[in-house]
Amino acid sequence: MIGTLSSRLIGFVREVLIAHKFGASEEYDIFLVASIIPLVLVSAIFYAIPGVFVPQYLELKLNKSEKEANLYFSKFSSFYAAWFLFFTALICFFSPTILKYYYVTPNEQNFIQAVKILRITSFFILFGGVFSIFKSVLNANKIFLLPAFSPFFLNLSIIMFLFFFLDRYGTYAFVFGFCFGYFLQWLVVFIHSQIKKVKFSFVMDFKDVLIKKSVSALFVIAIINILGQLYTIIDRAFNSYLPEGAIASLNYANVLCQIPINILGVALGTAIFPSISELLSTNQMTKYENLIINSLKFIILIVIPLSFFIYMYSQDIITIVYKRGQFDNIAVTYSSQSLKYYSLGIFAFVCYPVLLNIFYSLRAYKYILFSGFIVIVFKLLTSFIWVREYYHMGLATATSISVIINVVLIYIILNNKYIKLNHSQILLTLFKVIIISLIITIFMKMFASGLNTLPVFYSLTIKLTVWMALYTGMLFLFKLDNPVKLLGANIE
Question: Do 127 and 158 share a structural domain?
Answer without folding.
Answer: yes
